[in-house]
Amino acid sequence: MADGTAGPRPRPRSPNIQLNGGVWRWHITMLGSILHRATGMGLYAGALILMAWALSLATGADAYAAFTGIAGSVIGRIVLMGLSLCAFYHLANGIRHLVWDSGHGFEPRTASMTAWLVIGFAILATVAYWALVAMSGAA
Q1: Mean of pLDDT over the chain
Q2: How far apart, in whole angstroms, are the C-alpha atoms of residue 37 and residue 32?
Q3: Contact criterion met (CB below 8 Å) for 86 and 43
């Protein structure tokens, strides 16, 4: 200040945004938490797609043909594969959270291992599901 007194003290920063990199470091459990939220949002998008499917089915053959044409396109199939990945991830991570609700699995090593297991399960289950779809001739 003009009279030589110090101004207001600067407000402290959150530990995760400090200039030196902060207190937090990237960890697989952080990714697991982010993916749980992201897959939850993906499942909401899937619910909207399911509603569009039901509406097209109720509207008539032309609307249903248009929907299946979009869903069967390359982009449509990628979206459907992404939705199944979201469903498998959210399912497995939901089970992980139920175990946590019982008071187990919080040890850092266990939490990291189960985060990797959930990711691996989601990927393998999605691949297996779409392999079965392809073998059935539905794809």
Answers
A1: 91
A2: 9
A3: yes
